[in-house]
Amino acid sequence: METATIMQGIYISDKAKQKVIELLDTEGKGNDFFVRVSVVTGGCSGLTYKMDFDNETKVGDQVFEDKGMKLVTDRKSILYLFSTTLEYSDGLDGKGFHFMNPNANRTCACGESFSV
Questions:
Q1: Of 35, 39, 54, 90, which has the fewest beta carbons less than 10 angstroms from its beta carbon?
Q2: Per the confidence metrics, is the pTM higher than 0.85?
């Protein structure tokens, strides 16, 4: 299966990496699993992020590695995700993963969707 490997592009914070490792362990997923991120149509701003665990790359996938963590996205989504950092917050103002995306010029109030 052919995949494009790019050394830079999508990043992960230390805190998000630790949470991903914890979730993979809790779900009993092995070292062959990675984070798949994508952008899909939806939300009040037009585009929304999707994040899953996967263990198979697909033709055309863009593969990144940051801090020893494999991050994979499809060819269409990388246009929206280039230079984006996956973050994790466990503070009082909201728990969960979120994306620090310099390409987004507008986000909705809930932070679930964006536009470029």
A1: 90
A2: no
